[in-house]
């Protein structure tokens, strides 16, 4: 995936997240999907950052790989 595709996927996930958050009540299925969206979005943002870092240091951004969800979710903010 190139940067444009990654950012497009992030935008689509954000739109879906907003649509799911609109109702005041959520089903268990909707809550599970929201969590899945958050995790996938975080992985994609991590991938964007990896690609930017590789580019900054003269490396090939296409060598960046998505990191496992548990690794990305456990980063300290």
What would you note in describing this structure?
The longest helix is centred in the middle third of the chain and has 29 residues. By secondary structure, this protein is mostly helical. The two termini are 26 Å apart. It contains three helices and no strands.
Give the tags.
77 residues, mainly alpha
**What percentage of amino acids are in beta strands?**
under 5%
Largest sheet: none
Percent helix, as a range, is 55-70%
Low-pLDDT windows of residues: none
Please provide the count of β strands. Answer: 0
The number of helical runs is 3
Question: What is the string of helix and strand elements?
Answer: HHH
End-to-end separation in angstroms reads: 26 Å
Shape: elongated
Q: What structural class do helix, strand and pairing data support?
A: mainly alpha
Q: What is the arithmetic mean of pLDDT?
A: 91
Radius of gyration: 14 Å
Summarize this entry quickly:
The protein has helices spanning 3-21, 28-56, 69-73.
Reconstruct the topology from this structure.
Elements: H1 3-21, H2 28-56, H3 69-73
Helix pairs in contact: 1-2
